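Please predict the structure of the following assembly.
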Amino acid sequence: MQLSRDDLREAYTTMKRIRVFEERMRTEFQKGEMPGFVHLYCGQEAIATGVCMHLSNTDNIGSTHRGHGHCIAKGCDVKDMALEIYCREDGLCKGKGGSMHIADLSKGMLGANAIVGGSPPLAVGAALAAKTLKNKAVAVAFIGDGASNQGTVFEAMNLAVVLKLPVIFVYENNGYAEFTGIDYHCGAVDITTRSSGFGMPAVKVDGTDFFAVHDVMREAVERARSGDGPTSIECEALRWYGHYEGDPQAYRSKTEVKEIKANKDPLEIFKQKVLEKELMENVEFEEINSLIEKEVDDAIKLALNSPLPPLSSLEENVYESY
Amino acid sequence: MTKMTLREAITDAMRVEMRLDPNVILLGEDVAGGRGGSGGEGEKSGGVMGLTAGLYTEFGAERIIDTPISESAIMGAAAGASLTGLRPIAELMFADFFGVCFDQIYNQAAKFRYMFGNQKGAPMVIRTMIGAGVGAGPQHSQAVYPIFAHIPGLKVVVPTTPYDAKGLLIQAIRDNDPVIFCEHKMLFAEEGEVPDEAYTIEFGKARVVCEGNDVTVVGIGRMALLAEKAAVILSKEGISVEVIDPRTLSPFDMDTVLDSIEKTGRLAVVDESTPICSYASEIASIAASEAFSSLRAPICKITAPHTPVPAAPNLEAAYVPSVERIVAEVRKISNYKSKI
Ligand SMILES: Cc1ncc(C[n+]2csc(CCOP(=O)(O)OP(=O)(O)O)c2C)c(N)n1
Ligand SMILES: [Mg+2]
C-alpha cells in the first residue's frame, strides 16, 4: 500500500459519495418524479474510484448507462449531476441528456452512454488525440460484461493495439447484461482471455477491492503514458440492485444479493483493511460520512427546487449556427 | 375475441404464428427473460417490456433465442437464416440501436431480392420499439421509421391498435420480404378487442379511423390516436375531420388519402418524427402533385422539430405533436380562405 493518508481519505470519500448518491437516487426514483431510467452503481464503487484516482482532468473517460459512479470519480459535482438527472435548466447538459447522458468535458468525462458499446471507440479517439498532440494524456473506456460482446468494442480494442494508443479498457464484470448471466452470454473463458487475444496485456482483479483495482490501474496508466499501448483490466464486480431501478430481478436468486451485500461491500472491505493497518481512524470515517450525507442531500434539494429548461431551449444547440 | 393490450396482442401474434409455423424463431436480448446467472433455469420475464412473456416456456431455447448484446450479429443472423429456410423475428430492443447494426439491414437484408435477381428475399421481421414519452433521452426515444421507409426493399409497419398490431405482425411474419415492425412504447397499454385465432391485415391498406368532410388528417402510428382525440374536440366546433391511420408506411396507401382529400380539400399530416426528409414530407409532396386540383388550403405538416429528443419532460412534451397543436393547426387550415 503506497497510498498516503490523504489518498486514503480521498478514496473513501469518493466511494462513499457514490454510495450515498446512488442510494439516494434509488429512493428518490421510487417517488416517481425522476424522468427516464436510472441504473445504479452500488457495489461497483471501488472500480471507478480505483481507476479515476490515477487520472487528471486532461485524461478522458468514456462511460456507460450505469455512469453516475464514473462521473463522481472523475470529479463531476454532485449538484450539477443531480440537476441533470432531474433534467433541470442548470444541469450539466442543460436537461437535454438526463441520467444516461451526463457529460462534463471540462473534467475529461466524455459522457455516460445509452448505447451499449458506444463509448469504447470514443475513448480510442481520445487516446488518438492524446498521442497525436503528445500531451501524455490517457483515455479509459468503462465497459460492462454485456457490452464486451458488442462489435464496436472488438473493433476499438483492435484499433487501439494496431495504433498502440494510450487507452485502458476497464471491464466491469458484474455478472449480468440486463437479465442475462455472463455464464450464458460470453462464449470465451472470460473477458480477459478474449482481450489478450487482441494482443494487449490483460489482467483480472477483484473489483470490490479498491487496492487491487488501484494497483493494476497504476501499471496500466504507466504503460499508456510511456507509449507502450493499451491494457485491458477486468474487474469482477457485483451489482447490488436491479439492472434499472424498479427491475424485479426474477432472474437472480435472493440469497445472491443478500450475500454480496453482507460480504462483498467495497466500502466495508476498504474500511477493514485501513483500520487493520491503523491508517485511518473510525472517527475519520464517520466525519466523512456525515459530510457526504449533507452534500448529497443539498444536491437533491437544489435539484428539486430548480427550474426545468425554458421551452425556448428545445430548438437550441442542435448546431453552433444553422 | 378477447380484450387485450397492444403489448399482449404482439405477444399473441408471435405465439399463434409460432404454433402454426415451426420455422418461425425469435432472436434478441433477454427475449427468454434471462438465461444463466443465479436464477436457475426457466423463464423469468418476457424481456424488458414483457413482450415475449410465456414464449420461452412454450417454445424452448431452440426457438426463443436469448442473444448477447451484439445487434449486428442478431440482424445478420436473422437475415442469413431467412435466406436458408427460417422465418426469424429479430428483436431490436429500441429502434435507436439500429445505429450499431444498420449494414446488416440496409446493405444486406433489404437488397437480397433485387441484387440476387429475385432468387429470394429475406423473410424476416425486425420488431423494434420507437417513440418519445418516458423521458429516456436522445438515444432511446426516436421515431426512426422514415429512415427505414427510405430504403428500397424494406417494408415498414407502424401499428396503433391491438387488433392491427396482431394482424399486421402475423402478415409481417408471413411476408417474404424484410419488415420493420415499429412498436410505440406509449401504446403498449392501449386496449382493444382482438380475435383469438391467426389473421392477417394486408400491407398498404390504411384504416379510416373516423369519417369527416372538412379536413383530412393522416396520423402516423401513435399520432393517429392523438388525431382522433383532436377530431372529437374539433367536431364540437363544427369542423368535421377525417382521420386516417396508414398502418404501413412502406407500402403506403396513398389512394385512401387522395380519395379523402377529394372530399375534404384539406390535408394535415401528423408525424412524431423530425421534419426533414420525413414521411410527412413524402405524403405532402404526393398530395401536392396528385390532389392539386382538390386542395383548398396549404398542406399542413405537424411534426417534431429538427432536433434530437430532449430528456427534460417539459421539452419532450413540447417536442412531440400534441392534441392541442393538432386542434390549432387543423382549425387554421379549415378557416383558410384562398386570396385568389
Ligand atoms: C446497442 C444497445 N443494445 C442494447 C441496449 C439495451 N441495454 C442497456 S444496458 C444493457 C445491458 C448492459 O450490460 P452490461 O454491459 O453488462 O452493463 P451493466 O448494465 O451490467 O452495467 C442492455 C442490453 C442498449 N442500450 N444499447
Ligand atoms: Mg453487466
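Residues A 39, 64-66, 114-117, 144-147, 174, 176-178, 239, 243; B 29, 69, 71, 93, 97, 100 surround thiamine diphosphate (ligand 1) (CB under 6 Å). Chain B is about 35% helix and 20% strand.
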